[in-house]
Structures are given as structure tokens and as C-alpha cells.
Write a structure and sequence with these properties.
The structure holds 2 protein chains of 2 kinds. By secondary structure, chain A is mainly α. In chain A, helix 2 crosses helix 3, helix 5 packs across helix 19 and helix 33 runs antiparallel to helix 34. In chain A, 56% of the residues lie in helices and 5% in strands. Chain B is built from 25 helices and 5 strands. Chain B has a 5-stranded mixed beta sheet with strand order 2-1-3-5-4, sandwiched between helices. In chain B, a hairpin with a 2-residue loop joins strand 4 and strand 5. In chain B, helix 1 packs parallel to helix 5 and helix 15 packs across helix 18. Classes of the chains: A mainly alpha, B mainly alpha. Chains A and B meet through helix 30 of A and helix 14, helix 15, helix 24 and helix 25 of B.
């Protein structure tokens, strides 16, 4: 590669760095970083791996390296260190250290960007060898503007690390299939070790290496006439400029002719048939007259102390030994392998048993098998998906070498998705981040194909590239909640996926700026908080059940996207759903992860964009409709019961003000039924019953029918409707003695003995020998409660059926 | 391939289809779905010659939306042969479904050759998506059959180019509009193919076009007349099911979301309605799903070879999905049922790739040419059999969806009616399930429609049984007959408020007092009003 050819990749990598670093600066600390960052520091400072063993140490240690330059407080004696609690230790490390939290986080994230750059370099090198220089640049362009990689390369997490070393491992293995030299097998083993030390997903990489070596083993030896992978692509319309094509193919590896015509094989035919190195696959790359030419792995078989091994088997052994050796050293020699195994068994150590996966409107305790397929579909820029699908149509399978190369590109992509099928922790597309580079790598085939096509093909290609870059830049700096147009962009993403696909605690600096500008009097927040918001200087109250089901006017609510979509508000409130996305509209969104709501019930605010207007009837109805089933299914949920009673009482007052007395009475009865101990409800009931005007009655219906209707309601424990039916009955016939009796009983059950006594006394006034009323009065006298005193169980009384 | 071989393959496919559609038809699906009962009542009315409608609108049943009548006419024929039973309802669908497989085989044979036709026919024969609707008495099952017949007629027209062929095509195409609303998509899928065919042959064929269009207009004239004179009836259902989309604030977002749900229903997340699917299970089994993807890839990649056929496959896959995209209950396998033919054909193309690769792969791989597709077909059959007959057919949720308890409840009430005078609430008495089941059983059930239900009628009185869930009526019964015997309870709308009570004939009151009459009339009126209000939407 000439110096001039370095320019384009260098610029793209600089763009990648620029986008990552500049956007990273504004992101607050995210979920896993609290544990990863602090643990990484302890690894490099003490070489003690006790913290956070559910993830291998390499990436965390890399993040910890820059922190060694700072004079930080000692690890020993810090909270959480002795009992190996990485979360306690991590919070203490970040918040009570000699340097500010933001500086620690920023410095620790820098090596992650470096890992991202490394992955870009490996990807470019591989793409260049596969497709040629400009397609290689194209793949790097896709990589540099890929929003998911950009999002995660800025955080101290292990996903980009394992992706990077997976690419390196498979690239070196692919090189081994080309060169057959032991050097590449050795390097591949080292890279695999690094992948294994990055994240336990590296096990998939190891399985991939094994599978690919097996493919090599069972496949026939390459044909001496094998051509470059790119030769197999359909050429489409013949180029109008064959000379230039030929020239460029010689220069940039983009040939449409058999390779050996432009790059003559270095070896004699007889030798080539026997050798893995039979054909210099990539045009433009001179087959090096390497001193390793006589290495033992070179050739189809390897002779070792009299035994003859197939080369892939020997390479596999070498790779495995080196990888294991590296793991053994990297995870604390001599117990590295044991540590690795122990950590592997604790992968789900942070798993919350009450957690449920969310996907496209559905929740599941066991996760969705197709979660990652859809996650990739919605989180990958649409042009990249189009390029990928087009690349699949460019596959030609008529030569073994080509099949092998496509296997190297597509098998890892499929394997990480297949692993995703068995991953029940559906918390983010980052779990299949290693699949992304291979998707981009395949896209290189399109760039190469387009080079030989008509101008309008190139124009469409260029337009897609512009769309791709613009789509990523449009969401800058909020790469984490990126969604493509299939999902309606980041605006609609929350309807499809949640958790670290959308909200991971990254927007609290921005929230602080927003609150400083808006200066709301009361702020209540429910969002995913890796560290407490007081440390960002955000004064707030926590949202309670009352806020979720029955938000107040005049309060600024900040709800995290995941909480808005979660099945439960939190573990404290099982079964409570926000439902705000369906019911209300946020007044502002911060980074598509924090939703700001302000409510008003004042009709004057109906068109006020600064608040969301909720008509009062709906406001009460929403609260009551949400809470009623909750209280029904969880009778011990006292807070829900209390809030529901409060909502009924408030609606009763509102209805009474509007002159809807019957409805007000029903509400206040409901409130008393839910919580009979609140004096305010009882006062409200007395006031309502006193001010209750004449109820509308049908003159054609006799009192007995109303009485019987009351009894039907009474049997169903609907005291409110029973009360109204009895009042109607008495309106039709004021001397209906049974109605007075039963009305007294209802009053008694609601906890109003004085009203009950009055009704039973009326019974006796109408019919002095009415025994049930006498009995009830006698019983009441023995219990002797005073009206107004708490009587939660009601007064035991006798009723008379019609 | 010899003619004998062709017939043999056709018989194999037909037998396979018949097995999957007739096996355990009495038991799976269990019970009787309310829409089936409704259609059964309408078909019975046709069979008895009470009505010969162009569209089924408010008629025999409670359900008041216009429905295409072809299925009801066919069902009426089956009723004439086997009587109005649940089995007859489902037998209609099973015969239509089996015929679809045979027609589909013939269509595929003409367009893509015998080998792919066999694979496609066998896949359709075992495809759970099609099997499910071949065993439920709903008119949607006619759509695939009529698509097949239309394509068969089209092929005949393209080959023979005679006036009769044009007329047959026009008639077949026109009759399709009497099957189900989803058939409206067929002209959309057909139009590009007709245009392409005409453009390629460079022939106008004005006479043939005239004959075809004429036949089409003659056949559809009654329907057009109905649509013009009763548009509110004709379009009601379509407007109803598309309401969420039409009223949505952001229609493009709803459309985009629905489109994805429908496209993924075959592979990732299928119909959630238990009546039609194992909730959320993809409509295709994994093998057919993979074969479909491979086939789709091959079709797209080779679209330049034999373009009309490949284009036809894509059009008849995508366009029939449209009704499911714009309607409620997305994704609905029923509304997209027209796409099942192309889906199976594309999957067959995918399986055929293996055959061709095996054939090209030299001696070492030649065995795969026959073995892999055969293994795939057998696996598909086994997977679909298990999914349909074992998982779905024995599921509690399906039993609920098909109101098995209502069938048992009816049988219990009908048994009671043999010995007693049984009076029922309108909710039970008018329920389509009870009415349809009683067509066969002819139990003397009566409706509580006035205060006479509560008093003795005469010398031939038997013990009186009340089946009622209205609390007011039950209160009246308790008041009038405190010494009643409670035979059982039943649930309505999830609440166990329904009661079955018996009153000995000796205790029946000869008449009611004025007050009792007033009260019972009040509750009976209230019950009937509530019932009318509740069933207004039906």
C-alpha cells in the first residue's frame, strides 16, 4: 500500500475517533461501567481479580490503565473490596476518589475508542485483501459511521473488545488458509486468547475457529486454477473501459480475470497442488517470498516426530494451546484457567429474576429467540442492510475457494446470531455486536461489483452512502438509541426495544443542563441510574406509585425510556405499568432516552405545548382503571389501595361540584370500601348523602322493584348501587320498612352507626313490632360505637330480603 | 416422467392433503366457534330455501355484517347430504382445503414442472397455516382455492386462446368475488402478469378480452348491484377492520409496523389469536421457513429467467398479504391466507435447489437429490402434525377459544329439556352456538320472554328449569319459588352468575299477583333490553 493509499483509511479512522470522543464527552456513566471501570483499575493496580469475575478482565484492565497515571485512593480498605462487591466498590471508587468522577470515566473510555480503531484497521485490511483497496475503504467507511459500534466503543464495556479480537482472530485464520504459514496460526492463537479474555462471548469465536478449521479439513484441496474470491462475482455489464479495469485490478485487487494472469504463482504447478499456499489469492498483494516458506505448517500435511497431521488439525492444536496459555496468563497465572471457568459459570450473576424481556410490545420472562434478529434489523442502518442483501445476491458458489471465503464472512455473522437465539438476556443489540463487522465486510462485495457497473448504479450506490452517513450524523451524539427507518427512527425505537438499546443512564449531563435552563419547581424522576443523581447535582424526588398512575399537575416528570416501556415500575411495585406512552405525549425528550412530561387539567392549557392537557374526567378514569385491577389481583398492595381510594374521593368531590350527585355518592362509597379509616372520606360521605337531591325514579316502577334491585346489588357487594336503589325505593314509598332496615344495614357496613341507628329507628316508627330492626338496634347498643369513630368492619346487622 | 408417475404423485399429494384435513375432524378443533355457528345458521337457511342471498347480511343469525355467500352455498350442499352438524360445517372446509391442494398441484405442474409441483403440493398439504383453516368453517378457506382455479383458467386461456377459455376465465375470476374480501387483492396481483403477457406476445386479442370481461361482468353483476344498492352493508366489514389504520394519527407508522408484523408472521411471530394459531407461533415450521427463504433468494436471483412465473410467485405472495397489513388483529393468518399458495411454491423452489445441487454435485452427492427433499417433507409433515394435532388441538386455550364449555353446556341443557320444560335467558337461547347445535338436536328449549315463564301453563306441565344469568330474574325466581333446587352454575363474561334451577311442577304458581307481575315484567324487560344492547355490535 502506498502512502497515498493510507490517506482515505486514515481520514475515516480519524472521523470515527472524532465522532466517538466528541460524543463520549457528553455521556454520563452508563450501566455496566460502574463495575467494569473500577474492577479494571483494581486488576492493573493490584493484579487481584476478585471483582466482577462474570466478565473476563482484558478490556476492563485496558480501561484501568490510564487511571494509573492519576494518584487515586488505595484499593485496600475501600467499601466492597473485602467482600468482592464490585457495585459498592465501583460507586465508592467513582464518587469518593481523589479525582472527579467525570475525569475517571473519560480517561477510562479512551482505550475503548482505541480498541474500536484497531477493529477498523483489521476490518479494512481484511476487506482490502478480499475485495480490493476501494471496497476496503468502503467497508471502513461503513464501519466508521456504524452507529452501534460508535455507541459502544465509547463505553467501558466488553462488547467492542470481543468484536475487535474476533475480527482479528478470524482474519488471521483466513490469512492462514491463504498462506499456510505457522506465523498466521500463531498470531491467530494469540488473537483468540485476547478474544477469550475480552468477554465470554469469545467462546463463540473459539467455536468458530474450530468450525472453520473443520471446514478446511473436510474440504478438498484448492484447485491450482483457483481465483480470487472477487473473480466469482457476476460482472454485470462489461466495463466500457477494460484497460482501466485491468490497470486498477493490478493496482487495487479488483480483477475480473483469473488471478494467475495478473499475479503469476510463485511456485511450480506440482508444488501448488499440494500446498495451501498454492494460489496467491489476492491480486495486488505480492506473495511474499517469506523466510517462513519452509515452516512446518506449510503444505497440506505436517510431519511431526514421525506422525503425519493434516495442516488444519495441527494449526487448530497450535491455536488452542496458545489461546489457553494466554488466558491462563491473562486471568491471573497460575489459576487463570480456573478463574476463567469460575467466571464463565457466573455469567448471569447480575441477572434480576423479576426482569422481563421486552420486544415489539410483548414481554417475556424467558426471552425471545428471535430478539437479536429483529434487534439487528432495526438497529442497523437501512443502507447497510440493503448492501448486505445485495452482497448475498452476488455470491457465486462454483469454486471451492470462493465458498471458503464466503464461509469466513457469513459463518461468524450467522454464529453470533445463533448464539443469540440461546441468549435469554435480551437486553441489547450489543450482545451480538461481533456480528456487525462481518455484515459490513460482506458489503464490500457490492462496492466491488458496482465499480464495473453503469453510472446509474454508481449514483444509487453513492446516494445510499450519503443516506448512511447522514443517518448516523443525524443522531449525533445520541448513538445508543439509534434505530433505522424500519422502526421509525430513534423517535419510535422505544416501541420496539428497550434497555441498553435505548436507555443506559447516558443522558444525565444533558438532563442537568435541561433542568438548569427550565428551572421547574418540582422534579420527579424514574430512570435507570447507575449512580445517584445527586452526584450530578440534579435535585429531584423519586416517582412513586401515585405519580405513575395519577400524575399531578405542576410537577415535571422525567421518565426513562426503559421504565416507560417496562412491565413493572420497579421491583417494589410488581405489575404496575407506566402506560404513559399510550396515554400521554411528552413535552420534551432528552437524547431519546429521558422523556419529560408536564400535565395540566386546565382546559386553558389544551393547546399549550409546554404541558400535556388531560381532561379531568380522563385524568380520574385513567388512575381508577389502572389501579382497580391491580387492587383486585393484589389485595395486600396497600399503597395501590390507598391511592385508589384517594382517586375515588377526589373524583367524588369533582363530581359533586358539577352536581353529579349520584356518581359522587358511588365514588365516595368506593373510597370508603377501600379505606374506611380515613375520616375525610366519612365526612365527604355524610356531606354527599345530606346534600343528595331527589333521585330520578320511574313512576311506572313500584318501590318493590327498586328494593329487589337493591338486594341484587347487595348480594354482589355493590354497596353504592344498592344504596341508590334503596334511596329510590324510599322515594317511591317512604314507609317501606324493609328498605329502611336494609339502608341502615348498608350505613352500618360502611361505618356510620348513627345513620344506621336513625334508619332502624324509623323502621320502628313505622312498625313498632318490627323485630329485625329491634335486634339490630340492640346489637348496635352492645357494640356502642360512635359515628365518626373508625369502624372498618362495619356494624354487624341483619337485613330483610324482599 | 410418465403419465402414470404424474398421476401417482397427484394421488400421493391428494391423500396427504385429505389425511391432514379429515383426520380427527370430529375432535380437532374442539367445540364450536361462534363464527362457524353463525355461518352454519345462514347456510341452513339457504339449504331450507328460506333465502338465496347475493350477500349474507342481517339474516338468520345475530351477526349483522355482510359476508360473501359462496361458502354458505357450499355448506348448504353439505348440510343437504349430511345434515346440519358441526362435522358438516368443517367437512365443507376440509373438502375445499383438499381440493385446493389438488388444484395447486395442477397449477404448479403447468407453470414450474412436475417435480416442483409435487414438492409444493406436498408442502401445502401439510402446511399448518392452511390445514388450520381447512378445518374451521370460515369462508377464508375459499380464497386459495379460487386463486388456484383462476390461475388454472388463466393458463388455459394463455395456451388455448379460445373464446371458451376466455369465458371460463371470466367466470372463474368473477366468482372469486363471492368468496371473501381478501380475494379483492387477486386482480392487483394478476394485472401486472396480464400486462406482461400481452406485452410479450404483442397481441391485443380484443375478442378474447371482450368475452372474458363480458363473462366476468355477468357473473359479478348481482354483487355489483348489491354493492351499489347497499354500500353501507357491503363495505361495513372492510371499513370496520381497517378502522384502527384509518383513524390512526400516524398512518404511515401503523402501516410500517403492520407490514413488518405480517412479513415476519411466517418466520418469527405469528397470529396471536388462539382460534387460528398456537399463539405467536410462526405460521411456517422451521424447515419450510428455511426452504422459503432459500426459495425466495433463488426466485429473486433468477428472476430474469422465466420472468412471468417468478414475478407471479412474488406478486401472489406479497399482494395477498395486504388485507392483513391494513386490518385489525395484525398479523392475521386468516386475512393473508391467499398468500399460502405462493409461500408453499417458493418453499418448494427452495427445496428444489437442494435437488438440483445434489444432481450437479457428482456421484458423491447425487443421493442428496432425492433424500434431502424427501427427508425435509417428512420432517415438515411430522412437525406440522405435532404442532396442529398435539399442541394446538389439545390446548386448553384452544378449547376456550372454541367454547367447548358451551357445547357441553348445551348438551346438558338439551338433556334437561328431554325431561323438563327448560326456559333460558336470551343470552343463552339466542347464542349462535346453542341455536346451531339445536338444529340437529331439536331440543324443546324456550325463552324467558315474559311473566308467563314463571307460572304453570296447564295440565301437561313438567318440572320447570330456568337457565339464567340475569341477577334480577334470578332474584324474582328466588322470591317466587324459595324452595327451588339449584342444579348448577355457569359463567357468563367470566362471572359465575349463571344459575340453573329447577322448580317441581307441583309448586308452580297458577298466576302471579299484580305486584309480582309488575316486578317480573320489569326484570324481563331489563334483561331483554340489556341483551339487545350487548348484542347490538354482533
Amino acid at each position: 500500500m502506498t502512502r497515498g493509499q493510507l490517506l482515505a483509511p486514515a481520514l475515516l479512522l480519524m472521523a470515527f475517533c472524532g465522532l466517538a470522543v466528541s460524543s463520549m464527552y457528553g455521556d454520563s456513566i452508563t450501566g455496566d461501567e460502574v463495575a467494569h471501570l473500577a474492577s479494571g483499575y483494581t486488576y492493573v493496580e493490584t493484579r487481584d481479580f476478585r471483582l466482577n469475575t462474570q466478565h473476563p478482565p482484558l478490556i476492563k484492565a485496558l480501561a484501568g490503565l490510564p487511571l494509573l497515571l492519576l494518584n487515586l485512593k488505595p484499593v485496600e480498605g475501600s467499601p466492597g473490596w473485602d467482600n468482592a462487591d464490585e457495585w459498592t466498590y465501583g460507586r465508592d471508587f467513582l464518587l469518593n476518589n481523589t479525582r472527579p468522577q467525570w475525569l475517571l470515566v473519560f480517561l477510562a473510555r479512551l482505550p475503548m475508542v482505541g480498541v474500536g480503531v484497531l477493529m477498523g484497521i483489521f476490518l479494512f485490511l481484511w476487506a482490502k485483501r478480499l475485495w480490493g483497496y476501494w471496497p476496503g475503504v468502503f467497508v471502513l467507511f461503513l464501519y466508521a459511521f456504524e452507529p452501534n459500534t460508535l455507541a459502544h466503543t465509547r463505553f467501558v464495556t466488553t462488547d467492542v473488545g470481543v468484536s475487535c479480537f474476533t475480527v482479528l482472530t478470524l482474519y488471521l485464520l483466513w490469512r492462514f488458509t491463504r498462506s499456510g504459514t505457522g506465523r498466521h496460526a500463531v498470531l491467530c492463537g494469540g488473537a483468540l486468547g485476547l478474544a477469550l479474555l475480552s468477554k465470554y462471548t469469545g467462546v463463540v469465536t473459539a467455536m468458530l475457529v474450530a468450525a472453520l478449521l473443520l471446514v478446511l479439513l473436510v474440504s478438498r484441496q484448492p484447485s491450482p486454477n483457483a481465483r480470487n474470491l472477487s473473480d466469482g462475482l457476476p460482472s454485470g455489464r462489461p466495463s466500457r473501459r477494460p484497460q482501466k479495469d485491468a490497470a486498477s485490478s493490478g493496482r487495487a485487487g479488483n480483477t475480473l480475470k483469473p488471478n494467475h494472469t495478473t499475479a503469476p504463482p510463485e511456485e511450480a504447478p506440482s508444488r501448488r497442488i499440494r500446498s495451501w499456499h498454492s494460489v496467491p489469492y489476492v491480486t495486488g498483494i505480492e506473495p511474499s517470498p517469506s523466510p517462513l516458506a519452509a515452516e512446518p505448517l506449510r503444505g497440506w500435511h505436517v510431519r511431526l516426530t514421525g506422525w503425519c497431521f493434516p495442516a488444519p488439525l495441527a494449526a487448530g492444536l497450535l491455536i488452542a494451546l496458545l489461546a489457553l496459555a494466554l488466558v491462563s496468563v491473562g486471568f491471573g497465572f497460575p489459576k487463570g484457567l480456573a478463574n476463567y471457568y469460575r467466571g464463565f459459570t457466573k455469567i448471569y450473576a447480575d441477572f434480576n429474576p423479576k426482569w422481563e424481556a421486552f420486544l415489539w410490545g410483548e414481554y417475556s420472562k424467558t426471552g425471545f429467540r428471535y430478539y437479536y434478529v429483529l434487534a439487528e434489523l432495526w438497529k442497523t442502518p437501512l443502507p447497510a442492510l440493503l448492501f448486505f442483501c445485495s452482497a448475498l445476491f452476488l455470491i457465486r458458489l462454483d469454486e471451492q475457494e470462493r465458498r471458503l471465503d464466503w464461509t469466513f464472512v457469513l459463518l461468524p455473522f450467522a454464529a453470533f446470531h445463533a448464539a443469540g437465539v440461546f441468549n435469554h438476556a435480551n437486553i441489547g443489540v450489543r450482545h451480538i455486536l461481533p456480528a456487525f463487522p462481518f455484515l459490513l465486510l460482506a458489503c464490500g462485495a457490492v462496492a466491488q461489483w458496482v465499480a464495473a457497473q453503469r453510472p446509474w448504479h454508481k449514483a444509487v450506490f453513492a446516494l445510499l452512502c450519503v443516506w448512511y452517513a447522514a443517518g448516523t450524523l443525524r443522531v449525533y451524539p445520541h448513538f445508543l438509541p439509534y434505530f433505522n427507518e424500519l422502526a421509525g427512527g430513534p423517535e419510535q425505537g422505544i416501541s420496539y426495544l428497550d434497555d441498553s438499546n435505548v436507555e443506559w443512564g447516558q443522558d444525565f449531563y444533558r438532563l442537568k443542563r435541561y433542568l438548569e435552563a427550565a428551572k421547574p419547581p418540582t422534579v420527579r424522576i424514574e430512570a435507570f441510574q447507575p449512580i445517584r443523581l445527586e452526584h450530578y447535582g440534579i435535585a429531584h424526588e423519586r416517582m412513586r406509585l401515585r405519580d405513575v398512575v395519577w400524575p399531578e399537575a405542576g410537577v415535571t416528570y422525567i421518565a426513562g425510556a426503559s421504565y416507560l416501556q417496562r412491565n413493572s415500575l420497579s421491583n417494589e411495585y410488581p405489575g404496575v405499568r407506566f402506560q404513559w406512552l399510550q396515554r400521554y405525549r411528552p413535552v420534551h425528550k432528552i437524547g431519546w432516552s429521558l422523556y419529560v412530561y408536564r400535565f395540566s387539567m386546565d382546559p386553558a392549557d389544551e393547546h399549550n405545548p409546554a404541558v400535556f392537557f388531560v381532561p379531568k374526567a380522563k385524568w380520574y378514569a385513567d388512575a381508577i382503571e389502572t389501579l382497580t385491577p391491580l387492587v383486585g389481583s393484589q389485595p395486600e398492595f396497600h399503597e395501590a389501595r390507598r391511592v385508589l381510594a384517594e382517586a375515588h374521593s377526589a373524583r367524588a368531590s369533582w363530581r359533586a361540584e358539577r352536581g353529579e350527585w349520584e356518581a359522587a355518592l358511588l365514588d365516595v362509597v368506593d373510597a370508603i370500601n377501600l379505606n374506611a379509616t380515613v375520616p375525610r372520606y366519612r365526612a365527604q360521605f355524610r356531606a354527599t348523602i345530606t346534600r343528595l337531591p331527589a333521585l330520578p325514579v320511574d313512576d311506572a316502577v313500584p318501590a318493590a322493584v327498586y328494593f329487589s334491585e337493591a338486594e341484587v346489588h347487595f348480594r354482589s357487594h355493590d354497596r353504592g348501587p344498592a344504596l341508590l336503589a334503596l334511596l329510590r325505593c324510599l322515594q317511591r314509598n317512604p314507609n317501606h320498612v324493609e328498605a329502611h332496615l336494609n339502608l341502615g344495614t348498608v350505613f352500618g357496613q360502611l361505618g356510620f352507626p348513627r345513620l344506621a341507628r336513625s334508619e332502624w329507628q324509623r323502621c320502628l316508627a313505622i312498625n313498632p313490632g318490627f323485630v329485625p330492626a329491634q335486634r339490630n338496634l340492640a346489637r348496635l347498643a352492645s357494640v356502642a360505637p360512635r359515628d365518626g369513630a373508625p369502624a372498618p368492619a362495619g356494624v354487624p346487622a341483619e337485613t330483610r330480603a324482599p | 416422467m410418465t403419465a402414470v408417475c404424474r398421476v401417482f404423485l397427484l394421488v400421493v399429494v391428494a391423500l396427504l392433503a385429505a389425511f391432514f384435513r379429515l383426520h380427527q375432524l370430529d375432535r380437532i378443533p374442539p367445540g364450536l366457534f361462534i363464527d362457524e355457528a353463525q355461518d352454519g345458521l345462514d347456510a341452513r337457511a339457504i339449504q331450507r330455501g328460506q333465502r338465496l342471498p347475493v350477500m349474507i347480511d342481517i339474516g338468520e343469525g345475530v351477526k349483522g355484517r355482510s359476508r360473501e355467500p359462496m361458502f354458505h352455498y357450499l355448506m348448504a350442499g353439505v348440510f343437504a347430504a349430511f345434515g346440519p352438524t358441526v362435522r358438516s360445517i368443517r367437512l365443507t372446509s376440509a373438502v375445499i382445503g383438499s381440493a385446493t391442494v389438488v388444484v395447486f398441484f395442477l397449477v404448479c405442474e403447468r407453470f414450474v414442472g412436475l417435480r416442483t409441483a409435487f414438492l409444493a403440493g406436498a408442502l401445502l398439504a401439510v402446511c399448518r397455516w392452511h390445514v388450520t383453516f381447512s378445518r374451521i368453517g370460515l369462508r377464508a378457506i375459499l380464497v386459495p382455492l379460487w386463486i388456484g382455479l383462476t390461475l388454472l383458467a388463466l393458463h388455459a386461456l394463455a395456451r388455448r386462446r379460445t373464446g371458451w377459455a376466455a369465458i371460463v376465465f371470466g367466470i372463474t375470476f368473477g366468482l372469486g368475488f363471492y368468496t371473501y374480501y381478501a380475494y379483492w387483492t387477486v386482480p392487483v396481483a394478476l394485472a401486472p402478469l396480464l400486462v406482461l403477457g400481452i406485452w410479450r406476445t404483442r397481441a391485443a386479442h380484443a375478442r378474447l378480452a371482450g368475452l372474458g370481461v363480458g363473462a366476468f361482468l355477468v357473473v359479478t353483476a348481482p354483487l355489483i348491484g348489491y354493492a351499489v344498492t347497499k354500500p353501507a352493508y357491503y363495505f361495513t366489514r372492510v371499513l370496520e377492520v381497517t378502522e384502527p389504520l384509518r383513524l390512526a394519527e400516524d398512518r404511515s407508522a401503523v402501516l410500517r409496523d403492520n407490514l413488518q408484523k405480517v412479513l415476519f408472521m411466517m418466520h418469527l411471530r405469528g397470529d396471536w389469536v388462539e382460534t387460528y394459531n398456537i399463539a405467536y407461533r410462526p405460521l411456517l415450521d422451521p424447515i419450510m421457513g428455511v426452504a422459503f427463504l432459500v426459495g425466495l433468494f433463488v426466485v429473486l436471483k433468477t428472476i430474469r429467467d422465466d420472468t412471468p412465473v417468478k414475478l407471479g410467485m412474488l406478486l401472489f405472495w406479497l399482494v395477498p398479504l395486504f388485507p392483513a397489513v391494513v386490518s385489525t388483529e395484525v398479523p392475521s393468518g386468516m386475512r393473508a391466507l391467499g398468500a399460502v399458495l405462493a409461500t408453499c411454491l417458493i418453499a418448494a423452489v427452495g427445496l428444489n435447489v437442494v435437488t438440483e445441487l445434489g444432481a450437479q454435485g457428482g456421484q458423491r452427492w447425487r443421493w442428496t437429490a432425492g433424500a434431502v427433499p424427501a427427508l425435509a417433507l417428512m420432517s415438515c409433515g411430522a412437525l406440522n402434525y405435532r404442532a396442529y394435532f398435539i399442541e394446538w388441538g389439545r390446548s386448553e386455550a384452544v378449547a376456550r377459544a372454541y367454547t367447548v364449555d358451551v357445547v357441553r353446556f348445551f348438551a346438558y341443557c338439551a338433556d334437561l329439556a328431554d325431561r323438563h320444560d327448560v326456559y333460558m335467558s336470551p343470552y343463552v337461547y339466542h347464542s349462535p352456538n346453542v341455536r346451531f347445535l339445536n338444529l340437529d338436536r331439536q331440543a324443546p328449549l324456550r325463552l324467558i320472554d315474559g311473566d308467563t315463564a314463571f307460572t304453570a301453563a296447564g295440565a301437561d306441565d313438567r318440572d320447570r328449569v330456568f337457565v339464567c344469568e340475569a341477577p334480577g330474574i334470578n332474584a324474582v325466581i328466588e322470591k317466587l319459588y324459595p324452595e327451588h333446587e339449584t342444579l348448577g352454575n355457569y359463567a357468563v363474561y367470566g362471572a359465575h352468575s349463571g344459575r340453573i334451577v329447577r322448580i317441581a311442577k307441583q309448586r308452580l304458581l297458577a298466576s302471579l299477583t299484580a305486584e309480582q307481575r309488575q316486578e317480573s315484567a320489569y326484570w324481563v324487560n331489563k334483561m331483554l333490553t340489556d341483551f339487545r344492547e350487548r348484542t347490538r355490535k354482533w
